[in-house]
Amino acid sequence: MIFIYRYASWAFTSLAYALNDSGTLSHKLALIFLLFFFVTVFTYIYRRYRKHGTVLKLFIAAEALGIVVLQFLTGGMGSPYKWYVMNPILAAGVYLNALYCWSLLVSYIGIQLTLCYAFFNVSRISLLDVLLQNMNMILVLALTTMAMQVIGTMKRELIKANERTNETMDHIKSLYHIMETASHNKAMNMGQVISDYAVKLTKQSKAFFWLDNREIEDAPESSQTGWTAEEERQLFQTLAGHREQFRFERDPFFKSFPEWGDFLMMTVPMTTRFVAAIGVKLDPEQGMERRRWLVQQLIFLAELSAIFLERYELERVENQLLVTNEQNRIANEMHDNVSQSLFGIVYATHSLRQTWHQLGKAQVDEQIELIQESANQAVRELRLAIHSLSSKKSGGPTWMATVKSHLHMLSRLNNVQIELHNTGEQYTLPYSYQKAMFRMISESAGNAIRHGHAKQIHVHLALTLRQIELTIRDDGIGFRTEKLAAGGEEIGAEGGLGMENMEYLARSLGGEFSVSSAVGKGTEIVIRIPVQAAERIQ
Predict the structure, then answer these.
(1) What percentage of the chain reaches a pLDDT higher than 90?
(2) DSSP letters along 36-84, please?
(3) In what order do the strands lie in the sheet with 512-517?
(4) Model confidence over 26-69: pLDDT tens digits?
(5) Which of 177, 231, 360, 483 could join 488 in a cystine, given CB atoms 3.0 to 4.6 angstroms apart?
(6) Distance (Å, rounded) from C-alpha 497 to C-alpha 440?
């Protein structure tokens, strides 16, 4: 509305000036078109630099000074362009602080009245009389300035309210996302999700989730966002050297590592066997107000992490109890059924061995047939016991179900269509490969959504006894792949493993990693990993 008013005020004041009797029409038209040019230039500058206070102050002052010159050329206080000064005052009232706005108004009125008194005072009246004659205009400008200050304050409060609303929505979405991921994937990707969302919520470039999982085979993994795989290893080694300090910290604290910089850290308050910490890398120029806000975000994430880790621990114990109960049940069944059948077979075989020479052929055949029937019964009962132990046969949770659930959650949360096609037998895939493939699928889909702004993602996973082939295609904005080779990666540099780390993970398993993309053409990632013979046997 301010920018529309600028052109409207130019049109009306120029029309009033053109209809004035003084001056020639050609000079008036030249001045009007010159003014239109400056109106366009200043309007563009205000649009472009509305968030740059120093630039705005300089150009608003320059425009106000230009209006003083314009009035001087067109009749002083009698010029219709005296009302055009409301344009810079409106801009100052909306975008700048009250002190500058009122200083601008007082300076303009003082300069304008002084010039009118010195050059246009035909009646030789006093400066006070000149002030009283123009009091109506001064009051209008003062009231307009007050009104724009109120509007500007309301606008800034509205922007802050919108920012707080968006921040709250980000918290809610993050909470939903993390809970969904932790629910469906347990601890497989929990550390990565937490570090990713530490970056997202704090608006920092680097964050980590470190877990002291020494001598704990089934513990979740530490993870980070923003560093390379080699830097990750070195960073976690550095953190491990301070584990005793982390064990006794209860509040957020600042920690400086000479080779890594300054961090804001928070230990995860837990009653389980784990010791964990969340940290974000700080920028040197950040003030205390910003850092206090970061503390709030870190406390929020630490509490969530504690809930997830404790729930994971409870689920682990529960699963162990379920397995133990199931093992006891199967042991009892095998003792009551299979063991008895085997004992009967052993006893019948021993008895037949002692008496076979005293029996006729028909009786021996009958005894052998009974032993064979008992053996078949024992085999059937043993198969039933094995069947109940198999998650594949009993319908228990599978790795592929975990992948599908995670992609379905990403699809719902980001309103993106994700299609997953898989071929081959997933139960032959070793656990270490399952873990790596999940991280790469999750990261590539996340990159396509966050950085590629994709609306459709196609994931194809082909599993054979000798090779894994993963293809991810999206219809996103794409990027120039030569930046990857030059070390200027854009996709993945801000979240997750990143392209470079995905490639490192694939090659660490002896595989191949390739990316094809172009601006506006989407991205395709192809990963081929051979499955080693020893691991296939396991």
Answers:
(1) 8
(2) HHHHHHHHHHHHHTTT-HHHHHHHHHHHHHHHHHHHHHTTGGGSGGGGG
(3) 417-423, 456-463, 467-474, 523-530, 512-517
(4) 888 888 888 888 888 888 888 888 888 888 889 888 888 888 88
(5) 483
(6) 8
